[in-house]
Amino acid sequence: MSSAGPAIDVKARVEPGTVAVLDRLARWDLTSVDTIRVSYGAVAAPPAPPKPQVTRLDEKIPGVDGRPDVTVRWYRPAGSGPGEAGADAAAPLPCLLWLHGGAYIMGNLDENDDRLDRMVIELGCAVVSVDWRLAPENPYPAGLDDAETVWRQIAGDPAAYGVDPARLAVGGASAGAGVAAALCLRLRETGRPQPAFQLLIYPMLDDRELTASIRAIEDPGHWGLWHLRANRLSWEAYLGGLAGDDVPPTAAPARATDLSGLAPAYLCCGDVDAFVDEIVDYAARLSHAGVPTELHVYPGVIHGGFGAIPKTPRTAQLLRDVYAALAAAFTPAG
């Protein structure tokens, strides 16, 4: 796309507590995958220390169909894990398979420790966070293959992992939410059962640069926002040479023309987010396809609000609403 979208008066639009964050983002070097990674590392929060109410455990999930094993991090209420003293084998836990964000080129298991601990404490659930392979070293479909491997192993033997198969959800943030949406598409494509729920927090869904909101960050004057140049580099790295009609919906879910039969969906984003238009469109098309869908768009919120400490009222509301949606999804029917 050659023409930029309408200008965004960022300082007038964002919540005041976000301005300092945008000042830091404005100093990112977005000229290459390597410079983006260095810039990200410079602002990433240190790992959160574990909370006493939560047990964290890193382990390997065996590969399927000749794929490599996948490292995951489990978060469970203390004393509830398989084999732990005091664990109640008769009470399997609801479980969220979580996929971290990072534009398909960044991110790690540490970055959402605090958020996932809170999920466990507030909801009494288990979370399994997937260390999925990143581009460009491992382009599509490597990351999606990793997510599917973990899903199939846990869904295939939930008792071994102490989880309730009827309350097994998938979710993620940004690129991780894109992989979560793609996993639902792949499961449908291969005839496997859908998750109970898909949690898509500001998902990165579309490589085509079609919307006004993604084009609006094309010129350098849009201080502090995720820039179109960085977005393009990230998609090119992830797609690994795929382009145009060769890009399948399981790589860029917004390309899917049929969204029927997918898991109930929850989508959220801010209105100062380059992805807002593609997210709103995807939510509308899910609903039109008969998928139970909930959408939240928060005024003044930028991309990345889930991972940051909630310093503003709207980012705090985003977090509260995410946990509430999961709580509802994990409530047994009847």
Order of helices and strands: HHHEEEHEHHEHEHHEHEH
| CATH 2nd-level architecture | 3-Layer(aba) Sandwich
Largest sheet: 8 strands, mixed
CATH topology: Rossmann fold
What is the topology, as strand order, of the major beta sheet? 1-2-4-3-5-6-7-8
**Number of beta-strand segments:** 8
Report the principal-axis shape. globular
Helix content: 25-40%
Keywords:
334 residues; Rossmann fold; hydrolase; alpha/beta; 11 helices; AB_hydrolase_fold; single chain; 8 strands
Task: Kindly describe this structure.
- The protein has a single domain (10-330), classed as Rossmann fold, CATH 3.40.50.
- It has eleven helices and eight strands.
- A hairpin with an 8-residue loop joins strand 1 (54-61) and strand 2.
- It is globular.
- The model has no long low-confidence stretch (mean pLDDT 90).
- The protein is α/β, with parallel strands linked by helices.
- The chain has helices at residues 10-13, 19-25, 33-43, 113-123, 142-156, 158-161, 175-189, 212-215, 228-239, 276-288, 313-330, and strands at 54-61, 70-77, 93-99, 126-130, 163-173, 198-201, 265-272, 293-302.
- This is Alpha/beta hydrolase.
